[in-house]
Amino acid sequence: MKVPSINTVTSQIQKIFANLPQSWDEVKQNLLELWHIKKIDKYIIRKFIGTYFFSIILIISIVIVIDTSEKLDNFYDHHAPLKAIIFSYYINFIPYFINLFSPLFTFIAVIFFTSKLADNTEIIAILSSGVSFKRLMYPYFLSAAIIAMLTFILSGYIIPPANQVRLKFENTYVKPVSRDNAHNVQMQVDKGVVAYIERYEQQSNVGCRFSLDKFEGKTLVSRMTADSIRWKSGYRWTVKNYLIRDFKGLHEDIKRGDRLDTTLMMQPGDFFITSREAPQMTNGALSGYINRQKSRGVGNTGAFLVEYYRRFANPLAAFILTLIGVSLSSRKVRGGIGLQIGIGIALSALYILFNTVSATFAANGSLPPLLAVWLPNIIFMIIGISLYAKAQE
User: Fold this and answer.
1) Measuring CA to CA, which residue among 200, 103, 193 is closest to residue 155?
2) Same domain, 44 and 149
3) Which of 104, 115, 141, 161 is most buried, by CB atoms within 10 Å?
4) Is residue 376 within 8 Å of residue 354, measured between CB atoms?
5) Residue 335 and residue 355: Cα distance in Å, rounded?
């Protein structure tokens, strides 16, 4: 193999730099050409994103007025400070509401401005210029990708800490919630070790009627029962009036005592986590909690799995509803844009309702969480592909 000389390499490098753009405008132009973004694409993206945020501002303003009127008595009765109402509640309520109804905002935006383009015969002009319907979808999907990315970041990393502040405000000033005790707590604290507490008082950190079962495979080898158990710190606990039974074949060893200090891999905070905690966890925290609960043998993870899977399924809704919206509104109809907007709102509301109902079934154990979360997307994807095929005719 012949090694090129220094002069040859230098000459090639000079040619490369000579062909590089000399200004930022040239760099930007080359990037636009690389992504095949034309003026009409930028026009559609600007209209799509602009209408999306305009619909958010319009609807969120109405929702805040309605929500304030409904909760005004609660704010007054519980002496909620004005600063807390604004910065602890509504500042954190807005991103939560935007993310919750993002599919609705996306659909309204697509239906509204695409219907207007079709009503002004702009869609016909674009298609008549040689642009295929498939190519027309390109800027729409770029816009949907921006919304999907925004939705994913909001739901996974920004909204959870905001929900902590918002729900704390609601529990204090809107509908105070008392979480002083837990009932029938059961969890696996180690491999083959299952703990049970009939009732746990958070204020005193004491649980009553405690049991600890140890298994080897499916065989019970030891069982501890105690009148009470008290949390000390970390994973350290103290049981009182205990009875330990060790099973060895047909024989049984019994030990009794008044007090025993032990280490159990559980903490009081684990007893008070409910489905309301799921929206307050980031993606990493939620995944870790689900894995930890599964390893402990806890079965009430349905709501947490639904929340976790939904954070990955909801961004796809931006693409699906965009596909349906463009396919429905790209043609000029006699009913005008009002009819198309009405159909769009009805379909998006149906999607949100279907999503909520399937999630409820999953949380109750009637449907697998993964199927329940993705089922609305699958069904509406089929609808979108059918409408898209019909729109191309």
Assistant:
1) 103
2) yes
3) 115
4) yes
5) 29
Both 287 and 171 in one domain: the answer is: yes
In contact, 321 and 110? CB cutoff 8 Å: yes
Do 27 and 149 sit in the same domain of this protein? yes
Do residues 200 and 216 share a domain?
yes
pLDDT per residue as tens, the chain (393 positions): 444 454 554 554 445 445 544 555 655 555 455 456 778 888 899 999 999 999 899 889 999 999 999 999 989 888 899 999 999 999 999 998 888 888 888 888 888 888 888 888 888 888 888 888 888 888 999 999 999 999 999 999 999 999 999 988 988 898 876 667 888 888 888 888 889 999 999 888 999 999 999 998 888 999 999 999 999 988 899 999 999 999 987 788 999 999 999 999 888 877 877 777 888 899 988 888 888 777 766 656 778 888 899 899 889 989 998 998 898 888 776 656 667 667 767 777 788 788 878 877 776 667 788 888 898 889 889 988 888 888 877
Identify whether residues 226 and 326 lie together within a single domain: no
Q: For residue 251, what are the domain limits?
A: 181-267
Q: Kindly list the distances between the CA atom of residue 190 and the CA atoms of 86, 214, 215, 220, 263, in Å, as whole numbers in the listed order.
A: 45, 9, 10, 14, 11
Same domain, 154 and 218: no
Residues 272 and 141 in one domain: yes
The domain total for the chain is 2
Q: What is the pTM of this model?
A: 0.73
Residues 187, 157: one domain?
no
For 153, phi then psi, to 5°, come to -65, -40
Domain boundary among 267, 292, 319: 267
> Quick check: 235 and 210 in contact, CB under 8 A?
no
